[in-house]
Amino acid sequence: MMMTAPELIDAYVADVARLLPRKDRADVSMELRELLRDELGDGSADEALELLRGFGRPAEVAARYGKPLTVIDQGDTRPFLRLSVVGVIVIWSLGLIEAIEAGSGAMMVLQVWYFKYVLQSFWWPGLLVVCFGIAGWVRRRWPSSAAWKPKPSRTDHVNRAGRIAAIVFFVAGTLVLVNASWLIKKVTSAPDAIAAFSFDEEFLRLRGPLVLALMVLAIVHFAMVTVQGRWSPFTRKLELVLDLAMGAVMTWVVFAGPVYQSPPSDRLVKFVLVLTVAGILIDLAIKARRKYASRAKAINLVS
Asked: Cα(first)–Cα(last) distance of the chain, in Å?
């Protein structure tokens, strides 16, 4: 049965009202009904249907009349999306590593990886929804907790004292990492403890020296910026090259074979490598976005 124009308006208003708090339904329904009838005038049912469709979905109209219930605040959308993607990629990568180690044959590896890790990895976005929802509720309940705090502007100058301390830490950490098994042998003769910090022989042939060379170059680059006291175009470009090389080599190391002789140690270090690669990719994406935004702004100013 064909509905008349007033009936179409009443049905539309009812759909909008169902999405509003009970205390606002009567007032909003009256106001919206009068507005739509005034705009339609003596129009036909077809004209009423066109008017209502152009006015927007009932959910959109309800949002105009009242603040809709949101689980994730609009300002948290980008961080939520970024963390969701990175977390899922990390879970998939670690699952693929374990599936390769446990499976036999490409099809079996893909089957184990898909059903055990890919399908079950979406608990992570669900957990983030809960966390961001709680954070948004806390901000609305106690606005002072989210008050803006000024931060110093970003400059090309660096803190030399802090970077010198960091260089000492990086050098010491690299020496300990390279000589971990030797240090353990000085403390204990337990085979399990020694194996836990002993590198795989295949890793030491090529992958290990390449990783060590990149770590040394990164320390040298860090020292260059520290000595200069500021970033320069050359050191910025060198940082980009080192980040790309480190990310590529770490990805290769993760999938090329064991790093340590002990499986638990090997899984742990690969987990750390995956997180490091994810951090490098996020950092590169942020820098690329900032560079693109600055160029677009410069072009707009010129034009």
From this structure: 58
Both structure tokens of 202: 């295949």
If phi > 0 it is left, if psi is from -120 to 50 it is alpha, else beta; for residue 105 that is left
What angle is formed at CA 299 by the lines to CA 296 and CA 301, rounded to 5 degrees?
110
The pLDDT value recorded for residue 150 is: 62
**Distances 184 to 176, 190, 204, 259 between C-alpha atoms, Å:** 10, 9, 18, 17
pTM: 0.54
The b/e string for 258-273 (b: 16+ C-beta within 10 A; e otherwise) is: bbbbbeebbbebbeeb
Please tell me the distance from the alpha carbon of residue 111 to that of residue 114, in angstroms, as a whole number. Answer: 5
Pick the most confident of 26-40, 157-171, 275-289. 26-40
Instruction: Of 153-167, 169-183, 276-290, give the range with the top mean pLDDT.
Output: 276-290
Span 139-166, pLDDT tens digits = 878 888 777 666 555 567 778 888 888 8
Extract the tokens encoding 270. 């690969």
Q: Which residues contact 19 (CB under 8 A, 6 or more apart)?
A: 58, 59, 62
The pLDDT mean for the chain works out to 82
Contacts 24+ apart (CB under 8 A), 116-122: 117/91, 117/92, 118/92, 121/88, 121/91, 121/92, 121/95, 122/88
For residues 251 and 281, give the distance between their C-alpha atoms in angstroms, rounded to a whole number. Answer: 11
Token readout for 131 is: 């966390």
Contacts of 278 (CB under 8 A, 6+ apart): 86, 89, 90
